Amino acid sequence: MQHLFLTAPIAQKLWKHFASCAGISIEGVQLQQLITSWWDRPGHCKEKQILKAIPAIILWELWKRRNARKYGKEDWMEILTTLSIYKPTLYYRIVYWEKPAVGWVKCNTDGACRGNPGQSSYGFSIRDNRGDIIYAEAQTIGDATNMEAEIMGVLKAMQFCDTHKFQKIILETDSLTLKHMLLKQWRVPWSQVENIEDIKRNISRKQVQIRHIFGKLISSQTI
Fold this sequence. Notes:
Elements: H1 2-7, H2 9-22, H3 31-39, H4 45-71, H5 76-85, E1 96-97, E2 105-114, E3 118-127, E4 133-144, H6 146-163, E5 168-173, H7 176-182, H8 193-204, E6 207-212, E7 221-222
Parallel strand pairs: 1-7, 2-5, 5-6
Antiparallel strand pairs: 2-3, 3-4
C-alpha cells in the first residue's frame, strides 16, 4: 500500500505537485502521516475543507489508475478528456418562508461554526400564524462543530417552547442530517446522544412537525 499510494514514481509526482502548492513536505513520511499533515494544515474554514478532501481524491485517482493499468480500463487521458467536456447540470429553486396555520407556531433554527470545530453560535426564531416574531435568540457557545451548533439551536428552541407552553410547533432546520437524527432515521454521534435525547423527549410531549428547508432563516422571504 505504501508503494502504490506514496513511493511509486507516479504517486510521488502527484503528491509533490499538490503538496508544493499547500506548503507540505512529503519527504521521509509514512502515508498516514502525510494524510494527517493535510488534515491538520491551518487555514480558514473553506481552505481546510479543501485540504481535507485532496488526499482522498489523490488516493482514489491512484487506485483507479492502478486498476485501469491492470485490467485495461480507461486511462488518465480518457479521464482528462471526460473532465474537459463535462458540464454540470445546475438546479435552482426559490425558497419561501410560509406562515404556519392558526394555532401553530413556526420555529426556525440554525447553527454556525468558524473552523469546524471552532468558535460557534446558534440561533432560533419563533413566529406566529401572521408571520410576526414572538421571540428570537442567538448565542455563542465557544468551540464546537457545525452539528453541535445546529443541535444546540434546536435544543434551546424546544426548551423555550416548553417554558411558554407552545404545543403545536413546526420545526424547520437547514440541516438534513439533524432532521434524520431527530426522526430516528440516522444514528446519533455518541457525543451528542444526551442532547438529542433531550430534544426527543421534549418533542414527544407536543405536536411537532420537523421539516428540512433550504437557505438561512435570516434571508428567507415570507408569503
